[in-house]
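Bump. Still looking for diguanylate cyclase structure tokens.
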Amino acid sequence: MPGARLTITQEIAERIRIRIANANVKKRATGELIGQVTISAGVAEFKPGESFEALIERCDQALYRAKQSGRNCTIASDD
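Sorry for the wait, here they are.
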């Protein structure tokens, strides 16, 4: 989300996470109810001069912290 502050991206990711967790997921082909699906998310804010790879790495580290925290949550990069 170009230009968005970290707090905004975390809020948006959290709203998406909650919406997914509250959805009744069904298979399109059969209509069979799959049940609850949850996600974990890691977000980071671009630092001026940072490479794209470094930004993705910080997001990835935040994602792994979310998974280690019990999953189904959103964690922001803390560096």
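The beta strands are 25-26, 33-35, 41-43, 74-76.

Edit: fixed formatting.
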